[in-house]
Specification:
Layout: H1 7-15, E1 34-38, H2 46-60, E2 64-69, H3 75-80, E3 84-87, H4 95-112, E4 116-119, H5 122-135, E5 139-143, H6 152-159, E6 167-169, H7 172-182, E7 189-191, H8 208-218, E8 225-230, H9 239-251, E9 257-262, H10 269-280, E10 287-289, H11 296-302, E11 305-308, H12 318-325, E12 330-333, E13 355-358, H13 363-375, H14 378-395, H15 398-418
Parallel strand pairs: 1-2, 1-4, 2-3, 4-5, 5-6, 6-7, 8-9, 8-11, 9-10, 11-12, 12-13
Helix pairs in contact: 4-5, 8-11, 9-13, 12-14
């Protein structure tokens, strides 16, 4: 992976089935770095959560993170690390504002003597790329998912994310997508799996009172099983397919379960369509729309399974990893999570599975998977959950991921100074 030679990380990558690209690079000491991190918001989603984790890692290692975004509810977590937060409308797609943001970022780079500019989404990436060209500071990008490319304009717009040196992908699946679409050399692509805080997401650390509070918040009756669906209320996340699956389960006479959408609706038309369908089908007795949950560990602990029915490539979804860390089985579409995220048949033997995988867009297959899970003995569900936690702890290790990220930053800065 971009020149990183460390046996623990390379063995981690190998066991996870992750491609490692390692051209020779001279050893680099981890001198204190100042990193400008650009993200649209600090509200919800993979990029926002990824920025929070990255900031914690940098601050705890003695480096200086400077986060530029439009802000949001996660800002307080960033500030708690001691990082600098600067609010600029980095979510804007307006070309004039993107250019103004580039000049603003260039000023920030000079004021904070930043060694690296790291973009986590497309709109801020264009400003970050221009700021990099103005200042000569290396430009790094992270891909959390595959972007839709409906036309030539979208291809150009998305393409800024392939201009990083390096380009960081959160999974091998995303790395291959970047290489296929843009011909980005493997020597410039580094796979850095997401890291999960397995101390926070530890079923043993969640009290019964916290679980009871979550069930009360959602209005769940005693004995009802909870199917948890996380992620923003966007069409690509497949919430409509979950509703279609629920309709099929109701038609089969299944009951004693509740589906909770713990999702940021963002006031989109799709969110309105979802609720209209819930009401039109009379599924409001089974489906709850809770919005974001502050106590996520308790939400996972209260549920029997976490579902992601994504209909577009999602890379690595943090919620899928968090659920497995909480010893809960997961059901995912084949676009929601690859085999490097969820162990599922037929890729692995049944006794090694951590969840189930179904075809994207197939509500019938999702309904059938839920029936299979509901029919499993509790001991089998627990065993699947136990394997999931072991998988996350061994393959999404925060220490190894942090070491690799710091190495990539140091190499980028060293190459720029040597140029």
């Amino acid at each position: 992976m971009a020149g990183y030679r460390n046996s623990s990380v390379e063995s981690l990558a190998h066991s996870a089935g992750i491609r490692t690209i390692s051209p020779p690079v001279a050893p680099i000491d981890f001198e204190p770095l100042s990193v400008l991190i650009a993200t649209p918001t600090l509200q919800a989603g993979a990029a926002d959560s990824g920025v929070v984790e990255l900031t914690r890692m940098l601050a705890s290692a003695g480096h200086e993170p400077v986060v530029v975004s439009r802000g949001g509810r996660l800002t307080r977590e960033i500030k708690a690390t001691g990082a600098t937060c600067i609010e600029i409308d980095m979510a804007s797609h307006n070309p004039a504002k993107v250019l103004r943001n580039a000049f603003a970022m260039a000023r920030i780079v000079r004021e904070h003597r930043c060694d690296v500019i790291h973009a986590h989404a497309r709109a801020p990436a264009w400003s970050a790329y221009l700021a990099s060209r103005m200042t000569g500071v290396p430009f790094v990008t992270t891909w959390y998912k595959g972007f839709r490319q409906q036309n030539a304009f979208k291809r150009i717009y998305n393409g800024v994310m392939a201009r990083g040196t390096p380009v960081i992908a959160v999974s091998d699946q995303i790395a291959e997508l970047i290489n296929d679409r843009y011909g980005t050399p493997w020597s410039r692509i580094a796979v850095v799996p997401l890291s999960i805080d397995t101390e926070r997401f530890d079923p043993g650390a969640v009290s019964r009172d916290r679980v009871t509070a979550i069930r009360r918040l959602w209005g769940i009756r005693d004995g009802d099983r909870i199917v948890l669906v996380t992620g923003r209320m966007l069409r690509r996340k497949g919430h409509h397919l979950v509703i279609a699956a629920v309709e099929q389960l109701k038609a089969k006479g299944l009951k004693d379960f509740v589906v909770v959408f713990a999702a940021e609706d963002q006031g989109t038309r799709y969110a309105g369509e979802i609720w209209d369908r819930v009401l039109a089908t009379g599924s409001n007795d089974i489906i709850r729309m809770s919005g974001p949950i502050d106590d996520l560990p308790a939400a996972y602990a209260a549920s029997i399974v976490t579902v992601s029915a994504a209909v577009q490539p999602e890379g690595v979804q943090r919620a899928v990893l968090e659920a497995q860390a909480m010893e809960r089985p997961v059901i995912v579409s084949d676009l929601a999570a690859g085999p490097d995220v969820v162990l599922a048949a037929p890729a692995v033997a049944h006794e090694r599975t951590t969840g189930m995988r179904v075809a994207a867009g197939d509500a019938g297959a999702l309904a059938a998977a839920l029936v299979r899970l509901f029919s499993m003995p509790e001991s089998e569900q627990r065993a699947m959950g136990t394997r999931g936690r072991a998988w996350v702890r061994s393959h999404f290790n925060a220490e190894a991921g942090a070491a690799l990220m710091l190495k990539l930053y140091a190499e980028a800065a060293a190459r720029q100074k040597a140029a």
